Every structure is written in C-alpha cells, then in structure tokens.
Amino acid sequence: MTVSxxxxxxxxxxxxxxSRLAPPTxxxxxxxxxxxxxxxxxxxxxxxxxxxxxxxxxxxxLPVAAAKAGMTSLVIDDRASPPQTVTRSGVEAVxxxxxxxxxxxxxxxxxxxxxxxxxxxxxxxxxxxxxxxxGFEEKIGRNRPTGQSFSRDFRGPNWLDNRIAAQNYDDRxxxxxxxxxxxxxxxIAARLTRLGIDTLIVDKNARIGDNWRNRYxxxxxxxxxxxxxLPYLDFPVTWPTYIPKDMLALWFExxxxxxxxxxxTGTTVEAATYDAASGRxxxxxxxxxxxxxxxxxxxVVMATGVSGIPHRPAIDTLDNFSGPVLHxxxxxxxDDWSGKxxxxxxxxxxxxxxxxxxxxxxxxxxxVQRSPTLVVNIEPSAQFPYILYNEDRTTEECDFITTSMPxxxxxxxxxxxxxxxxxxxxxxxxxxxxxxxxxxxxxxxxGWQFKYLTRGGGYYFNVGCSNLLIxxxxxxxxxxxxxxxxADGMVMKDGRKIAADMIILATGYKPQEQLVSQLFGxxxxxxxxxxxxFGDGLELRNMYCQxxxxxxxxxxxxxxxxxINSKYLAFQIKxxxxxxxxxxxxxxx
Length: 589
Fold this sequence. Notes:
Strand content: 15-25%
Structural class: alpha/beta
CATH class of the largest domain: Alpha Beta
C-alpha cells in the first residue's frame, strides 16, 4: 500500500468520525470499530489513564467522553509521520497520527485501521492523549521563561542568587514534594517545573546520582541509550550504547542543575500526615546535618522506585552463619573478596551480576536459585521490545506509539518477542537446562518486561554469567537442596558442604505499599491499595494517576517509563492546581 492510499483510507475514516461528533451517540460510533477493538485514553478525553475494550464498550463510553470534553474534529497531524501501513502486535494496519482539541487541552492521537470481513476499514485501536494544557503551556522553546532571573540588574540578585534562594525555601513551602532523586524524581520534577509548579526533590543520598553511583562496580544499563533519555535533554550523541552507572550518575547530577531543579540531598522523610481541611501535608524531614523541619506541600510524589525497602527473607538456620550477610543493595565491589568463597542467593539481574563480579575478582562463587528465572541474552534478544526506537523516528513519536498500545496487545507483542528470543538463545537455554537451572518465560510466555511490570524482577539479562554457570566457573545450587547453614558455610541434603566467607541476599525489595505504610501510616496505605502490577485491570495500579489518598502520587519504572508517564502525572497535578480537576479520593473529575 502506498502512502497516498493510506492517507485516503485514514481521511475517509476520520471524515466519517467527525461527521458523528454533533452530537456523538453510541449507535453512531459502533459501526466504526471492529468487534475486537481498543481505545486507550491518557487524559485526552478524560482525566484518567484508561483502556476500553471491545466495540460496544468503546461505542458507549466514547460519545459521552467526547461530549463532556468538548472534542473538536480530528485532523491528520502534518508534523508526524504520514499515514502508512505498519505491523503492531502481529497485525497489519493503517496507522495515522491525528490532532484535536478539548475544552482544556491540545491533544493528539493515533488511529489504526483494519479491514473487516466485508473489506470495510474499521478502527482496530484508538489512542487519545493530552499534549498541552491550554493557557498553561510548558515553559520551553519559544515559550521559554524571561524575567528577573535573566535581567542585567547590576545591583540586584543574579541567577545564582535566585537559584540559592529558591532552593532554600526559607519563605515558603513547595507545592509539590518529590521523594527520591533517581530517574523518576528527576523526570517528574522537570515536568512540573516547566509547568510553573514549585517543586522540591528530597533524596536520602549525599549526591543526586548516588542511587546508581553507589551500586556494584560493574553495573551498566541493560537497555540501549536511545531508549533512555530524560525529558527535554537527550544524552550526548558521543555516549556509548550501554551507559555505565557512574556515567549515568554524573548525568543525573548535572541534569538536576541544568534543569534548575530544587534539590535537598542528605534528606530523609520521617513521617507525613494529611490535613483534609487545608489540602496540605505535614511532612517531617531530617537532614544529615541534624536539621529537622516540617514542610507543608499540597502534593507528595513518591519516586522511590518500584519498591524501596530491601527484602531480607527469613531463611531457616541462616543465623548459624558467622560471616557477613549482605543484601544486594549493600554490595559494592568484588575486589575485597578475592580468593574467598561467596554464596549468592537469588538469580535475578543483581544475583547474576554480583556473582559475575565476584568471580571476575577471583572469588569462588555459588549461586543459589530459589525459583525459576527468565534468562535472555542482552543482545539481541533483550533489545527486541525496543526495535521501534531504532527506526527513523523522533524519540517523542516512538514514545507516543509505545503509549498508544493497550495492555492486551502489548502482551501479544511480548509473547512474540519471547518466542523469538527462545529461538535466538536456544544454545544458551539448552546449556542452562543441562546444569539444572530452572527456566521460565513469564506468565503466559509474556517475557521479561511483564515480569518487571507485575513483580519488578525475576529475570536476568545475560552479559556472561550464564555462560560462566554453564562452564562451571560459577557453581549452581538449588534452594530446595539446602539442608542447613553452619558457621562457615552451607550444607546440602546430599551431605556436601559449600564453604562461604560471606553470603549475599539478592532477594529483591518489599512492595512499595510497605514503605507507604511506614511513612504515611496504615490508613493511608489501605486507602491507596496495591501499587504496581495490573491486578484485574489494564493499567498499572496507582501509578501516574490520582490515588485513593488525595495529594499522594506515585511514579516509578525505567527511564523510558518515567520520561513518558511523568508528562501525564504533571498534567494532572497542574490541572488540580489551576482548578481544572478536583482532587478526590475516588479520582472523580
């Protein structure tokens, strides 16, 4: 199909859609969608991140939302790629980018059209998204800020003076407190700042970037540079494909400075309570210099990762061991253990990478597997989900396409990636099976990404440790075969004893709701409910959206997830601050 054909088909469907807008009705829209169709909305026609499935559900919900939002006619977006034939989740479709407006915003979307059994073009997927709040546009580009900070008042405060005063918060409270200065905290703070929302990041570490800087010596990102930019400021074109941890840490630190983000490092949140009458939090914080302070933001954004508290499971008889027992978050460098014996419990990325690091440093390592683990080679297999970002498209357009896909179709795509990776990695996987390593491929064979989205781990991107296991340079033991621990090691049920000078628990982290309960109390945790994962829905639970607790928000995930979803989270907070959206426990607008 030519581009001209795709444009004609897209315009025909769009004209039909637009003709039914005044007034929109369910009967008018039903015939425009396939029976098996999807509509995902990210603030484009409502104030939620929501997915609708099936012709009837879409036809019922869409006209109500369109009328309420004051939706204008769809127009093909001439600033995006032209309509064309694409394959998404194994289905060939005509894909077109569109624009429109609502009462509150300039919006965009994507339509994907397929032929029905009679050859008529019907909508398979519809995506609607807010791109800009009318009257509250981001302070970027031609809308960049001007004013006193940039004046040449030789007797007045200069830019640095103003930045220091802004960060001190001596005369005010921030509108938003962001807890955590990793990629999630930096992304949401940058978005909010560009929307004119006074935002403060607090981070327990001494420097921004320490959440990466202080991790084990050999750590690098497991996905490629082009996927991982932060908002507004891409990584330099000179950087390597896989970014080392210290390089990323330095970038985070410089990003915070360049984006003029207000940051307090060495600062810990001790507790917080919400005053419904004032609509403000009372947040008690402690700083490393002994200073204590209570601040009263209207919003608290938890940006502490998918989970924040190290999980140290109760392991029978482990107390018998007399050497150090470290959680993986405490591990730094294998050089200190050269020539010694180490047991690493847990076979996710951290367990494998730490085992690899220790082995490379001359330690004798035994890796203990507690449950089946997904293993995929770092190249090419682990990069299959990011193929889109290698196309000749902008990062913004790739993000838009990624966001547009509803969860059921994303699962189908990842089942395809999993099948492909199993074929590509067959030699490696066969070798692991032969040594007794227990493999799995995710629920319904959806692969590593859905393991991350549902449980935050349970997989390993092989950068060489699997090969060391197969070659016998690192030993493998199964947790079920352990009899007990003794002062100097681990005794197996067959009588073998595995010596150890230290034991590392690569056992992951507790669910984030436990941190919520610790900081905000069990009542708030109960109002919020589960965080991360899907439950029975098609959107991540309590992420990037209003929660059951007014003024409490959550952002987490990879750099790409934080870059993409920070935009929608920031829009909601801005809308509340400007009176466009009401903050209520039931998320109602």
